[in-house]
Amino acid sequence: MNNPSSSNGLITTIIIFGASGDLTQRKLIPSLFNLFRKRRTPKKFQVIGFGGTAFTDEQFREHLHTGLKEYAGYSFTEEEWNIFAPNLYYLQGKYTEAGDFTKLAEHLTALENGDANRLFYMALPPTLFPAIIDNLGTSGQLHENGGWRRVVLEKPFGTDLQSAQQLNLQVHKGLNESQIYRIDHYLGKETVQNILFTRFANTIFEPLWNRTYIDHVQITVAEKVGLEHRAGFYDGIGVLRDMFQNHLLQLLTLVAMEPPASFSASHLRNEKVKVLSAIQPMTPEQVSANTVRGQYKGYRSEAQVNPNSTTPTYAALRLYINNWRWKGVPFYLRSGKNLAEKQSQIIIQFKEPPLAMFPMQTMKPNILVLYLQPDEGLHVRFEAKAPDTVAETRSVDMEFRYSQAFGQTAIPEAYERLLLDAIQGDASLFTRADEVETAWSLIDPILQTWETHQTPSLAVYRPGSWGPPEGYELLARDGRRWLNEEASMMLEK
Ligand code: BG6
To answer: Which ligand 1 atom sits nearest the alpha carbon of residue 155?
Structure first.
């Protein structure tokens, strides 16, 4: 993974905008520190936090140290921290103030002492990206004279197709697409990357991976948590923008894409765009028939939520991919907050055998379950003859668990991989402009029908349940059901 040429011998500076915020303390610094402990950061590197809070370098380091103890999820020694901490600096400034960017440029020049690589990380809302990129451009900080310049953009990338297109136009004014790294942290998850490895590093799955053998696909990203402290952001945004436009559609592309010509960023992303382009945007009638929107009971009385809010906290969709591989195979996607469990999984249900030759009809269709989180692994359910019966079958399970195969600590935080890839210039796990826009073009018509026509009507569900009855009906109409509880039983065995 480590590619020494990526830092071309120069110092690499990571500039974090939004450095006094949550993401920096919870994810970015714990991930960078762990990379440093694993000796994967460039030999010469430093981090400059830029933010509104007044911190000295020392106070910034202390704030991050406190965060590490709480959020790192790994143990470290004070000695390691004492070697890492001197690489961290802080500069107070305003994102819209050109003068503060001149100060930043001077500060960088003084710290870098010659040519350097710079990774600008936007750990703040996208409304601020254009001003920051403009200011970086005007203060001459985006020129690749000597070292490289890259920008990491946090999600959400727009709130609909038009705002995403507008944002792309604005960021392209100062940057080439090859300098832009749009984050979807799901792509940094080991188990999500493993979807492609399962499919393309083996020969046993791919011959079956099509409409001839697969009955349907279920993608569930269920959250047990509610709004946490994010009601101000979430209300008016809702689950479709927050989870589907990015994470769930990304999972779908990985399950459904054709094998790319290579693992390069452009080949991989071309295939993902092809899958998204093969899904027809829905008409309002199709939105009524193929989508469910729900809100958990009690949502409207949460602090900072509009008491008449129709923001959905749950959604279920049925999508079809109109290409040779998938024509006619439904993909059921669902996600929600305040559900029974935290559980992200992909279930592939295979078709029944073409001929029922055994007299006892106890057979269940084969399923392959990719457990993305928690209990990461992969299970296959298949039928076996029950001993001492004439012809009865029982479902049995073949399993791979990460914790057993690789040990408890083998799964790193998604941001570690993403930060390292951005430093090394590998954009495979980041989303491209056309990919983001194509995803929005599928979500937009659903949002419009939901928000303008209030159709289908907003279903209410009990916190701690698996969502509203309408979510079950979506599958029941096709003679199917959500299989996650059966899949959980396989896990418990
Ligand atoms: C974020 C969403 O992108 O993903 C959150 O904004 C959600 O609302 C989170 O809770 C889920 O991520 P994970 O890694 O906990 O599954």
So the answer is: 3
